[in-house]
Prior knowledge:
Shape: globular
Number of domains: 1
Order of helices and strands: HHHHHHHEEEHHHHEHHH
CATH class: Mainly Alpha
Number of strands: 4
Distance between the termini: 32 Å
Number of helices: 14
Strand content: under 5%
Strand order of the largest sheet: 1-4
CATH architecture: Orthogonal Bundle
Largest sheet: 2 strands, antiparallel
Amino acid sequence: MTELTGKNFNILDTFKRIPFSTRAVGGLYLVVVILGVINGFTLSVLLSSSLHFFGVWALFVLANVPSIQSGTGPNFALPIGVVNGLLAMVLILAAGFSGMAFIFAAALLAIIFGGFSGYLYGRLMNAVKGSEMSIAPYTGFAITAVFGLVWLAIPIRHPNMIFFLGDGLRHQIPLDYFNANFILAELWSFEIFGLVVRTGELLVVFIACFLMYLFFRTKTGISISAVGRNPMFAKAAGINVDRSRIIANMMSTAIAALGVIVYAQGFGFVQLYDVAMFWAVPAVAGILVGGASGQRAKVANVIVGTFLFQGLLALALPVFTRVLDGADVVNPIRMVIQNGIILYALSRMSKGVGQ
């Protein structure tokens, strides 16, 4: 009896160690799933939708790990990486690439663009130490606005990419014209008991997560973590603090640039102009919901937080539409859920894990 009681206490202690934000969002996700099943959705359809959104959003959330670990905080300048990935895709499409060649060529170019932009952004973060959280969002807004002009002025004349009348790229470029839609989504995909598993997308995500896990066990990764934990001690130990922060931001920006390629092929179109401006906060909220803090983040936080947060957003609209019989209050409810989770996660950020 004592053993059983001890085990129960261990289970209870383990549950208490899970951050409240993770428990709350996880509980809400389960409620939405149960409501969906009661109202006619199959469990496999709900889980398939959750896995799909997990696959296309996970790299954006993963991009926050290096920046948090380096001490520059969550990557609210995520649009820098996103627009670099968009630019890579636009150039590769204009060059005539399609299929898997489009994915590889765009990914390579996105890494180059993202790494260079991340270097410049890292230099900026070093110049504004202590004010990163204030500067980063405006940097993301500014780069999005600049690229709004780039999309209008870029000298591309492909008939499937430009407006029907006048110059400039379209707001949405369908990838089916280039045989580049759902490349990863359909790669080795399979269905089991109605659950659709997009193997290619998930494989990319888990490879990226595993490489991130390995990186933070290398000398450079440990140095970056030391800088984020205690920059004064790291400097005294001979670690180049500024260099470590720049490397972390280069990684973060490059991962975000790769993420938008996975996102675009997963939905079948490339979105340009001001869309990138609104992607940073959900990505940051995802890792915070997963249990990260403003100072420490792990790959496990990425996987848990992305699945719960994006899964909840994916299911809220169809489930509540059916529950409320298509009432006009459905979309406001979804927005309340989305923004409420984001506000709660951000309010917990400075207090650390488990608050």
